[in-house]
Write the structure tokens for this entry.
Amino acid sequence: MQPFGMLVAGSLLLAGVAGGALAGRFTAPEAPPAKTQVLYRSPAVVTAIQRLARLETARFHMERVIDLKSKQKALMGLMDAEDAILLVAAADVTAGIDLGKLEDDDVEVDREKGRVKVVLPAPEVFDAVLDEKHTYVYDRDTDVLAERDGDLETKARRLAVDDLTEAARRAGLLELARDQGRKTMVSLIQSLGYEHVEVTFAEPDQG
């Protein structure tokens, strides 16, 4: 009986060791990590936008009459004289978004949700070009005692460009450029396969 008892005890000891090894080997699986949302900076989206370069989204045709006078003194300062020009000016003032200023961090992409957020540069006036077909000198009057100013028309044309540009701003050119730019961006990004697009604008440069 003693050898049999020793055999049983030995078997139980081996079973306990084996059971412990198996218990150590087959531990309960860890819980999967919680799902996280990953946002990507998408070079593909940025590149597609930057290819548009200067996005012209609004244009106003403006007209104005410029009355410019060159005040002079004649006869050793005893007499007033003037050289005057009346310029009818027309110009096309164009505004839009300079997409060359767009940075990678301005575009945020959530691929899983098909969502893109874009912060575009503030709209700006690109240029104001006089319409030569509709810009002309209506009247030029030089007093007898005045010297004719050869640069007076050039000054009047330059003044017309500045004046018409400011008039276009006051008439809402930049607001229209912003609205049209947003629509263009939404359409472009949706064409890349993103359903939800949010477009905002950076603050205008005050410098």
Summary: The CA atoms of residues 55 and 93 lie 14 Å apart. The chain has four helices and seven strands. Residues 2-25 form the longest helix (24 residues).
